[in-house]
Amino acid sequence: MSLNPEIGAFLDLVEANQTGDAQAFHQQTPEQARQAFEQSSTRMRWQVPGVASRDLSYPTRDGESLAVRIYTPSTASTEPLPVMVFLHGGGFVVGSLDSHDGICREFCQRTPCAVVAVEYRRAPEYKFPTALHDAADALAWLAMQAAALNLDTTRLALAGDSVGATLATVLAIEAAADPQRLQPCLQLLCYPVTDASRSSESRELLSEGYLLESPTLEWFYEHYARTPQDRYDWRFSPLLAPDLRGIAPVHLALAGFDPLIDEGHAYAQRLKAGGVVVQCKEYTGLVHDFLRMPMVTGEIESVYQELSEVLRQALYPAS
Question: Distances in Å between the alpha carbon of 227 and those of 129, 222, 223, 231, 233?
Fold first, then answer.
């Protein structure tokens, strides 16, 4: 297994620039890290034609109002569109609707489908399980507003990258236990956090030099958890969920040089043991956060083609 050479050159550049304002996240305050993440996202931004978007808001259970961004294909028909709800990564501390805008546009245009990107409140200002509660409240809002938005939530995928994928799969587990909730037909989970309670061989072997590093991972978890015990809660570490039976089919997209890859494979095995339909694709030469890297390597083009086909098959089952 070898690292994609364009990714390797990108990592060399990242390491060379990690001084001053570009230091690693765990050496910064959360606000500094957010600013740095957004600045890097601006530099990595790419254009996706044929997609319209608008920002709306949803209410949370504690009386706040947060943003959702709804993407639709510019050439959409008058028929209700199937939906992918997307939750962004960023360790529960960084990341935003803007930083992951390109990802949502890619899936919207390629599938095609509506994409509902959800803003949730971030740590350390808002600890576990606030992000999960916000995501659940967004789904409840979507259930009530779908008809007015011309969206078909009987064809629903829950998706996310990194901790966004963690939130997505927890929502799917909760939905399986509550038939009153929206019921997804697919979980698209890209390099998820599934077990924050312990280390793994890949976390040790890939602890530094591959973008997501162990000190930063711990920094994220420490900001999100109220106490160390939270990391053993299955809603923080879904690999620890007592029962995964009956949840929606899962497609896992993992990166070969991601410290989280072992827990990704472990989650796939637990899902299979619970009778869940699982596909697991490992992109051997890529690193964590690869969905935001089409400007780094052309390999991401084929990744989007493959993942959009997975979405298409789930959201258009009769075609």
Answer: 12, 8, 10, 8, 11
Per-residue HEC secondary structure of 256-276 comes to CCCCCHHHHHHHHHHHHHCCC
Known catalytic membership, residue 26: no
Let me know: does 133 contact 103? Beta carbons within 8 Å: no
Q: Which CATH superfamily is 5-315 part of?
A: Alpha/Beta hydrolase fold, catalytic domain (3.40.50.1820)
Distance, first Cα to last Cα, the chain: 36
Query: Which residue is catalytic, options 101, 137, 258, 262?
Result: 258
For residue 106, the tally of other CB atoms under 10 A from its CB is 24
CA atoms within a 13 Å half-sphere pointing along the CA-CB vector of 41:
21
pTM for this entry: 0.97
Looking at residue 64, its pLDDT comes to 98
Domains of the chain by residue range: 5-315
- Give the pLDDT of residue 22: 61
pLDDT tens track for 91-142: 999 999 999 999 999 999 999 999 999 999 999 999 999 999 999 999 999 9
Query: For the chain, what's the residue count?
Result: 319
Count Cα atoms within 13 angstroms, Cβ side, for 206. Answer: 20
Catalytic choice (88, 101, 137, 162): 162
| Torsion, CA 186, CA 181, CA 117, CA 27, rounded to 10 | -90
Which of 88, 100, 251, 288 is catalytic? The answer is 288
CA distances, 207 to each of 113, 212, 218 (Å): 37, 8, 11
CA distance 150 to 153: 10
Q: Examine the residue annotation and report whether 162 is marked as an active-site residue of this protein.
A: yes
Distance CA 271, CA 260 (A): 17
